[in-house]
């Protein structure tokens, strides 16, 4: 299918199915069992995540949108004119839409996402809304080194956009490695606009990840459905329960899938035994203080130039430079 005017052909980036098998076998062999959170995002998982973002319980999305709307002009001033905006894990590109409205004559938009249909649909919506803006979708696992499809002479500054506090889904050491890779990608003249979810009342956090509608539970369990389909697994989905825990010593929410019985599961040609109550940790979501987040960025050689928060200090957005 031809893409709408303004959308350049899809750049086919690194996406590694072999490493999914290796990662799953490795993670399920660990004690405690764990799986990398990035595998939550197949097409179905990406749609379920979009649904999470609209939930009353899940405050981060609307809070960050409010911060972006309030301070977009200030953010645009930092990015300057003719910036190329590179978004890591672009999803529906809804936050980007609000940012692009404020940017001064942006040179290009480069959304990177692992869910191909999501990526193409979002790219077309952006191209339609901003006819003068070239859109260069990159279909890739952005934790790998991703190609940059825009010629360097086309823009003045590359600005990475990483909203949602997705950085919190990495362990701190991984987050630093990723932020260093982003820094290499945007170069010495580049910038980074990044969202961070702030530490708050644990009850509020637990509620956000154990929503009453059960959408987060469906998002979590979809990982098992994916393993059944893609790695020939035989997980009995209803024999695992979703649970999100606040772990204060690590400042993080952890999502788990808790085995409801003693059982053995086959996946990717191997068997794994579960005790009743034993869980697989499927995601970390770290929460930050403003100082802690600044220190994390500094360890990856990023200096924060501006910080914006909402009045209740639930969430923060930062502009940083190398
Ligand atoms: C994408 N990421 C920032 C979300 C979070 O809040 O950690 C993923 C998510 N997991 C459960 N709900 C939302």
TrEMBL record:
UniProt cross-references to InterPro entries, sorted A to Z: EgtD, EgtD_Methyltrsf_superfamily, MeTrfase_dom, MeTrfase_EgtD-like, SAM-dependent_MTases_sf
Any one Gene Ontology BP term: methylation
Transmembrane segments: none
Keyword field: Methyltransferase, Transferase
Region (Disordered): 1-20
Domain Histidine-specific methyltransferase SAM-dependent stretches: 20-321
GO MF assignments: methyltransferase activity
Gene3D superfamilies: Vaccinia Virus protein VP39
PANTHER family for this protein: ERGOTHIONEINE BIOSYNTHESIS PROTEIN 1 (PTHR43397:SF1)
Protein name in UniProt: L-histidine N(Alpha)-methyltransferase
Species this protein is from: Longimonas halophila
Gene: egtD
